[in-house]
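Our preliminary data section would be incomplete without showing what the modeling component actually yields. Below, a chain of 207 amino acids is followed by its predicted structure, encoded as tokens that our downstream tools consume directly.
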Amino acid sequence: MHENASVPSHYFTKSKIKKTRKYNIRFDFRGQTISLVSSGGVFSKDHVDLGTLVLLESLSLPEEGEVLDMGCGYGALGIAIAKSRPKLKVTMVDVNPLAVKLARENIEINQVKNATALRSDLYSELEGKKFDIIFSNPPLAAGYKIIFPMIEGANFFLKESGCLVLVLRKGTNAIPQKMKEVFNNVSLISRKSGYKVFLSKKITKSV
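Predicted structure:
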């Protein structure tokens, strides 16, 4: 997710779930219609933000394997991927309990059997797991103190030759620089409507 005045300050805290107005969202991805419920208290509550759509269009997805949606919100990105690739195992995590609750509802609504949503502070609940791709529309509103550990942690939770993919609208200098620092490589794979999608690949040095 991106820096946005509509993101409440409590979003990145472990707050209690409160009853708020619900929103219904629909969009199409690779021949599949995705139906979602959302509410106040989460990012882009009444529509799928453009950054997420640009990231979806940019992803080269395997037919099988395991992927991680880091900072999943109400699940638009992860559920679209899960629905379009039924043999792919999709894990979605977010620190916001309301976001996780909505993501779980949306998994049920879309009847995807290959997706799970967990409450996790970055990688805190993912010990022992490895992924082929970690993707994120990262929370620039939370600052580098969240995004840099996300990038650093990805190196430990990616399989060999796995990829970290981020979509960015702002902060496109320091964040790709950090990706290059951690992985020794970074590529700009897509650019659209003011958004840029960057990819770093985990490469093990030969001995």
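The chain has one domain: 21-201. DSSP finds five helices and nine strands in the chain. Preliminary results of this kind motivate Aim 1 of the renewal.
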